[in-house]
Amino acid sequence: MTAPEVSPAVLLADQMVRMRDGVRLATDVHLPPGYRSGQDAPLPVILERTPYGKAEVSRSEQIDGRLGVPRPEVARYFTARGFAVVFQDCRGRYGSEGHFTKYLSEGPDGFDTLAWILQQPWCNGRIGTMGLSYAAHTQMALACLNPPGLACMVLDSGGFSNGYQCGIRQSGAFELKQATWAYKQAKLSPAAQQDPLVLAALEAEDIRQWFMRMPWRPGHSPLASVPEYEDYLFEQWRADTFDESWRQLGIYAQGYYDAIPDIPVALMSSWYDAYVRTTLENYAGLTQGRRSPVRLIMGPWLHGDRNTTHSGDAEFGPRAAFDGNLARHWLGFRLAWFQRWLQDAPAGAAPDPVARLFLMGGGSGARDAQGRFDHGGAWIQADAWPVPQARATAFYLHADGRLDQRAPTGEADRLRYQYDPRNPVPTIGGALTSGQPVFEGGGFDQREDARFFGVRQPGLPLAARDDVLVFQTEPLPEDLAVAGPVTVRLHISSDCPDTDFTAKLIDVYPPSADYPQGYALNLTDGIFRCRFHETWDEARPLAPGKVYEITIEPFATCNLFQRGHRIRLDISSSNFPKYDVNPNSGESAADAREKRIALNTVHLSAAHPSSVTLCVAAPRDLTPLPAHGAVT
């Protein structure tokens, strides 16, 4: 992709835009070459609000094969085609004034920014927004206030539907990517950049060692030298009940869907991204009772890596990349979207399916030249999400390790294990982001490996642990697609006042020449903190030995289980360092001083069955996506 040769764009740099509380946010305005503000016709505007630097490199942007492009260069692509482009530093970041409190100021600040843009002579009153990750969160936050001028959005891997259930916490547990993100970004904070001693203090910390000494204490953490970052992290970590703090603007779009304007929205994420649930819930919330088009794209990538064809060790092949498969390139996709909805360009001739989904699987299972596992895959399209052709099917867990569609008949079948919070199950991939240098996401053989934090017995499968229960089908007689939500219903009991249960869905490959022990590829996982067995609003202890029904909701997935493969479900009580570790004592995991070993039971009887519900379809019933089956 080569941008046309153009003269330099007009740049109005470092405009200090005043917010309602007087804080000023640093803003760059990019205008077409030769544009004369106040004389030439006003323009439609594209806005991105970011905490990562309005003039810095955007790691996921790609031009002419270069991955990682400065935002001003991205702006030039759009200004050369008749748009004004605005990049703004979020409050307390880079050139902007004020204190950074993650997520919670983005709604009002975004609203005020749009109001300012509308007053400028170069704006024609129509504004579109774009951005990845945090810059998707900023979009959804401002949209919840129904701001003037907002005409369309492109949200890539973010835009909190409910931060309590995805992105910050999951079903009571805390996502520790928040801790690694805070540590890395604290080093780029104004406090660290302006004070060499603060930066030196942060650089001297060993974040991996700190993860071995959890929970942290305020004033005694790797963030102690930057209190504003430490403060917001502990606020999130300690807020384990779903109270009003989780219903705040910026992290709870579910409470504002009725206020969001009825405008065209493109939503994109990926099966190994941390925002699968957010994206799919936003799709549901923004399509109900509305007329404007909402389009959904779900790839197989890690967070924002739309042109990387592998996630972890799992290789999906050249068809997995966005560029060349869904559109000529990602910039061109957004250009067509903004031309259609901001410049009234006619709709393209290419089909515009509601959902473009990457169906993982179908590969050879061999090791490729880069040492990765060939899982393969292909794009499909659907008229809605969940995929209409897929039917919800319950698979029951049995005491002998079977997983099948026959309900249990035993009177007292159950399986027990001891969960020791001092020896949690190590995280080996999954839907993760921002975890480096402690953990990483993606698909991996579920076998302990020295690459992963917390591993104690490299080479052994996680299934060999005493605290991991394994349930799997017989080898499948024919190919089977799973495309939709995953719901795990367990009947459980424990001898402790609180504990966790985890569930992980796995595609089990049979032994092969490259992998003589087979290959257990993780697809999706979830967790449930049992102190919230009745309601998310209040923690209530478990009664020892009492049987409770809980529901674990791993992220949705889209995978082809090939003939001869097995569908496997692993049940345990920890997944660290993806989630914080439950101490089993009844204390909040953020402040616990006591760790107890729990005797946890999964009940598998006729009276207390446990199951996983998958949305299954015959692959022949799914619709392949034609090449470039998107606006281009």
From TrEMBL:
Its EC number is 3.1.1.84. Residues 335-613 form the Xaa-Pro dipeptidyl-peptidase C-terminal domain. One of its GO terms (molecular function) is dipeptidyl-peptidase activity. Keywords: Hydrolase. It comes from the Bacteria. It is an enzyme of class 3 (hydrolase). Coiled coil: none annotated. This is Cocaine esterase.
